[in-house]
Write a structure and sequence with these properties.
Blueprint: H1 13-31, H2 42-62, H3 66-90, H4 95-100, H5 103-124, H6 129-150, H7 154-188
Length: about 210
Amino acid sequence: MQQQQHTSHPDPTALGLFGLAMVTLVASSQKLGLTQGTSMVLPWAIFLGALAQLVAGVYDFKKGNAFGGTAFIAYGFFWLAVGMSWLIGMGALGDSLKAAADSRQLGVAFIGYLIFTLYMTIGATQTNTVLFAIFALIDLLFIGLSISVLSTNEALKEAAHQLAAYAELLISLASFYLSAAYIFKAQFGKTLLPIGGKLFASKTTL
């Protein structure tokens, strides 16, 4: 997600972050109870959460940015999978698929993405402070999602749901901020919104 070298390809970071900001904003409104259902979240999951991040990831790989490319594409496919899961749950893909659905498998997938996000959070220490904060919030989101799906304790499920809801809203706000910071720097040639630097210097090169 952070530009590492200058090539003829434009920096796709602002686009990818905007996609993330939009889908988490809409999705968090449902988790917070401000809106109902996931039917109208689906278009934003598919086109902003998925396609915008996939496009940004492809361009990041073309620029030689393995970290950004992996992050954007992995989360892009996450939103496609979530959208498909919602469609199955709604019965849009047939009653037999809906009847056979086991939501615990979605909880296991959330754990898998939590593992992925944890090591990406470590990698984000070498980018900037705001991006690191976004990854840390995504960690909290997946912790909340995993517990809310897999726990059998209703009080714990509700607390985890609230954790996921507020983490997702903060992810959106931070992503809007960082997207704007990249756009302003590209357009004005200087930093207008501070994003901080690396959390610590790394002496290791891969």
